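Re: the multi-chain job from yesterday

Posting the exact lines I submitted so nobody has to dig through the queue logs.
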Amino acid sequence: MTGVDLFVREVSWKTGQGKTILHPLSFDLPAGEVLGIAGANGAGKSTLLRLLYRFLKPKTGEILLDGTDLWHISAREAAKTIAAVLQEQPTDFALTVREIVTLGRRPHATGIAGAGKRDAEIVDDCLGKMDLLSYAKRAFGTLSGGERQRVMVARALAQEPRLLVLDEPTNHLDIRHQLEIVELIADLDITIVTSLHDLNLASRVCDKVLLLHEGRLVAQGMPETVLTPGNIEQAYSVQVRLEQLSASRERYLTFHL
Ligand SMILES: Nc1ncnc2c1ncn2[C@@H]1O[C@H](COP(=O)(O)OP(=O)(O)OP(=O)(O)O)[C@@H](O)[C@H]1O
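And the result, structure tokens for all chains:
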């Protein structure tokens, strides 16, 4: 499975009352790259993600996947191409973990005999990737917040998307599972757009970062050119110090009021 080329041109969004939440912005993301969306609470990150997984329709502009407008493909084709892991989690508390992950296969249902075996293999593979094989028979409602988050990522992977949209995927996760998900994101060769609050993590995992402030683009490009003290101070109203870890020589940002 390969990623899609994503082109976003002059896309904006307003509420029904006419309040602009996202001012026109443009960016490109070549197939297989990871884009991080950063910005303070209320900056417009989730709104931009909702436009990308076709939950909201842009008021202006267009979103092209491999050159085709996202709104010119069928809902089924969109569901095969794009998977999203959101902050809101399903309320199917009685379903087992395996049943929830199997829901990810729904857009691919063909009715062809034998398809079930391949679906089961994909589901097993995704459960394994997210460290969930021993949870397969547990009811979703009995899981912790972090375990539920991993189930939602496994379901999205089972969809075999070419564009994966993640809203704060490391929320609820302990350090080990945060690192695992970051490594998984870096390893997948599909196109990924993710919002991330942890800017040091964003620097490590993203090919590009887009920084938003009050619904406007502050900067976009490689993490080291976007996540500068000046840009972060503008977007988050905090003092920023850029340091270098002596062992790895990695950039490390610290924040102060
Ligand atoms: N349908 C809507 N009606 C009114 N206001 C909205 C609507 N959707 C979003 N907003 C507002 O737009 C702003 C951006 O919201 P959004 O959820 O995109 O922010 P965010 O950057 O994801 O924030 P957070 O980091 O807190 O999740 C917020 O002030 C939010 O209240």
